[in-house]
Amino acid sequence: MKMDGAAWGEQLARHSRVFKPEGPGPFPVALILHGCGGKTPFLEVYAQVAVAAGWAAVVVDSFLPRGVSSLDAKLTVCTGLRVRGPQRAGDVFAMLAWLEGQAWADASRIFLAGWSHGGWTIMDAYALGGRVAAITRVSDARPERLRAVVKGALLVYPYAGYPALTTRHGWGEAPPVWSVLAGKDQVVGWRAPKLALDRLARDGLSVDQMFLPDATHAFDDNKANDPRARYRPDLFEQVQAYFADALRASV
C-alpha cells in the first residue's frame, strides 16, 4: 500500500526527537538516521553538535512507527529479513515532506547523516533514482526534490554490501559526501563501503573519506551491545568535529 509522504513523515516525527538552536528559525535541518538496532542515545550527541553549528536536528526513529521493537530490530533488521535500505529510504522523502510544514525548519537546506543501516538508507535513497516511489511506497517521493534540497551527506560505517545499490548504480547528481570508515569493522567491513564511495568519486561527486584504522563498528556508541564493538571516546570526539565541519561547509 502506498503512503503520502507528509502523512508518513508525521508518524515518524511522533517517535523522533527534534533539537533546535535558540530563536524562531527557520533553521537548516540535519536528519540523523540510526543503525539497524534502532535509535540510541549517542546519536543525540551528534544532534547537539548540529545545534552548536546553527542547525536544527531530527533524530529519526524508523522502527517504532513500524511496530519494530529493539529486540525485533536486532533479530530481523540487523539480519536483513525486513526494513532493508530501499524500503527505509522512503523515510528520507517522508521527512522532507514533513519538514515543509514546520515553521522552524528551512526545508530547502537539509543535511542527511546516517550510521550503518542509516547510511545504507541514504545511499539507496539516491541510488534508486526514478524507481524510488514504487520501491519505497511513498507515493510522492521525488528524486529531484532530494537533489534540490539536500546540501550534504555524512555516512558513518555505512552498510554497502549486497543488496545495497550504490556500487552498481551510482547516484547521478548528488551533494558533497563525507564518510567515516572503520578499519576493524567486523559488521559491515570497510572494503564494500569504500568501493561504493570510490564509485561516487569516479562519477564526479565530491567525496571525503575519513579512515580510522583502529576503529570497530559502533566505536562511537558507549552503549553498543555488540561484543565486536569497542567504544573509543577519542574517535567519537574526532567524528563530532568532522560532522560539524561538514555542516558548516554545507550551509
TrEMBL record:
Pfam families: DLH (PF01738)
GO MF term set: hydrolase activity
Entry annotated with the keyword Transferase: no
Entry keyword Hydrolase: yes
Domain Dienelactone hydrolase intervals: 17-228
Entries under SUPFAM superfamilies matching the protein: alpha/beta-Hydrolases
Gene3D superfamilies: alpha/beta hydrolase
Keywords from the UniProt entry: Hydrolase
InterPro entries documented for this protein: AB_hydrolase_fold (IPR029058), Dienelactn_hydro (IPR002925), FrsA_esterase (IPR050261)
The organism's place on the tree of life at top rank: Bacteria
PANTHER family named in the record: DIENELACTONE HYDROLASE DOMAIN-CONTAINING PROTEIN-RELATED (PTHR22946), POLYKETIDE TRANSFERASE AF380 (PTHR22946:SF9)
Protein name: Dienelactone hydrolase
